[in-house]
Amino acid sequence: MTIPSFVIGIAGGTGAGKTTVSRLVTQNLGDDVTRIPLDNYYEDRSELSFEERQEVNYDHPSAFEWELLRDHLETLLEGQPVEMPQYDFEVHNRKDERTTVEPTDVIVLEGILALHDEAINGMMDLRLYVETDADVRILRRIRRDVLERGRDLEGVIDQYLSTVKPMHERFIEPTKGHADLIIPEGANSVAVNLIEEKLHAEIEGNAMRNWERGSLERELAEKRSPDLDADE
Ligand SMILES: Nc1ncnc2c1ncn2[C@@H]1O[C@H](COP(=O)(O)OP(=O)(O)O)[C@@H](O)[C@H]1O
Ligand SMILES: O=c1ccn([C@@H]2O[C@H](COP(=O)(O)O)[C@@H](O)[C@H]2O)c(=O)[nH]1
Fold first, then answer.
1. How is this protein annotated for GO cellular component (predicted)?
2. How far does the centroid of ligand 1 lie from the alpha carbon of residue 158, in Å?
């Protein structure tokens, strides 16, 4: 059983480069790391029509199911697997299927409000905030939302001005105050290499701890077995 030893949070505005940073710092770490996109914990909106879902404010903290996320992180930290929801941006709703996530040495939580919740911040060992200028972020978002999330230009602009920008200023930007490190301009290679090295060292250290725990458990079992034999 793997008990995760290192939880890292990566927050920042839309288009800042959170997903890119999280992908780059974990891509060489194989199965020892689990990436949890906060987006998967958007509330289920199946009771609403597509038109109603288009009107939801997805940048307000109330858009997320925090209780479920806390519960899943706690379960993983106890060494147990969870059934993580999946999200479909094109229809603004959760998918029907879930993915089984096994506990791994390192857990990376990534999303606009990854540093918002006090209890979740308390579970993290390293809190990062990716900071990128607003003009760069909106340009990236237009391109991504049109090409990958089924939106049109007018829709992206309306949503940006009505909710994305004001919520960024009110809720997301202030979480920078909870960060241990601020990464400028997203995926800068110096920051990415340093974080990757740190995660690598954590994984090696945790493998050793898990091995020691395993051999201690084997030793105790061996000491107990003569008594068990005697009882039979
Ligand atoms: N440093 C960068 N330079 C150029 N493009 C980038 C950079 N970082 C991210 N992007 C691009 O910007 C878009 C948004 O990046 P992403 O990592 O998804 O941001 P976020 O997860 O913060 O919304 C993606 O299309 C990505 O390829
Ligand atoms: O149904 C939805 C859910 C979210 N959004 C927008 O997505 C971004 C968060 O994703 P990033 O990858 O960090 O950009 C958020 O700003 C929401 O506005 C959405 O449009 N529809």
1. cytoplasm
2. 21
